[in-house]
Fold this sequence. Notes:
By secondary structure, this protein is α/β, with parallel strands linked by helices.
Amino acid sequence: xxxxxxxxxxxxxxxxxxxxxxDGTLWGRRITALDLHDIVPAQKPGIDGAEVNIxxxxxxxxxxxxxxxxxxxxxxxxxxGVVSGEAEANFELGYRVNLDGTRGLFDAVRLAGHAPRVVxxxxxxxxxxxxxxxxxxxxxxxxxxxxxxxxxxGEVLLADYTRRGFFDGIGIRLPTICVRPxxxxxxxxxxxxxxxREPLAGQEAVLPVPRSVVHxxxxxxxAVNFLIHAAEIDGDRVGPRxxxxxxxVAVSVGEQIEALGRIAGAKAVxxxxxxxxxxxxxxVKNWPT
Length: 289
């Protein structure tokens, strides 16, 4: 089995690759080749008996997606994208990467003509306020950010390309993935991880929203489990609605901070500095809780 991962150098991409290398199989078949793509080189995993190719380039650039699809992967994990805060701050970049890059990849797979399973990472940002207390599967996606709009367009493309038989797509709407290891990124949701990660490392963290904010999150391990399940699930059981909202745990920021205090003590909590940020709040207040 040959697998292509875009966004392979990102946090979720790295953890997915670690899991694939550890398991050595997907869908009951031995992994024989991994193609890992990102704008910067991904770390090469050790996987016995498998060919590993590292590709560092701009997915939205002409010819890049075609080169990746020419290898005819059996499964494509499309994780590449510009995160929420950056997509909102840089309109052109967000649409170029999140929309043009996605459509370019989907079209390249279509033209390759072998109909693989494509797993697309979407986001709960496809939903916009006002919300019911619990969002059912039938709730209408009406994004209120450019990032959410770009992800929703990708969902519609995925469903149409699947309907046409160009590939067998599954889209998963991820909640906030928390706690993200490593350095902060430009995601508007980044502080959800930062207020835990930084104090545990003895560093100051900024909280830009009220403690009353409630968010649904899942762990990095759960995110990888979602991706693996999406790659292996029977498409006929899913039916025509190919974009699925993933589960998570709903907590307030205040509850997160209380948990941090129980585990790491008052000194860790004291490292959190509350500093309202209207730009972040304008995005976060329009996300489902």
